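Exam prep: given the inputs below (a chain plus cobalt (II) ion), describe the expected output before reading on.
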Amino acid sequence: MIGKLNHVAIAVPDLEAATAVYRDTLGARVSPPQAEPDHGVTVVFVELPNTKVELLEPLGEASPIAAFLEKNTAGGIHHMCFEVADIASARDRLVGEGARVLGSGEPKIGAHGKPVVFLHPKDFCGTLVELEQV
Ligand code: CO
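Solution:
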């Protein structure tokens, strides 16, 4: 059911410093920062030949990555995003398998303007999983 790895998201305490690591040390192409107030993050996209890395910095009071960064003060891998062809049928199949969808369970529009859902990390080997319809 899942297709390509769309991105790996890394939560970071300092987006400018993290951008410098990827752009200057690792020599990658990094997009300008983009504020996503609906998702409580500011994000940059590291464009790789086969996928993306997203660097996420908390934005606002109730950022969903704030607690993660309290536990992982240097930053860390926050989630992985897999592509699916049809998000509603993917969600229904996973719920049928006993997986938990976070939030209301209804797809939200993600950072790329496409519908996404997030799946409970305890159901997926300890990793928060995002599905994105492409
Ligand atoms: Co993501």
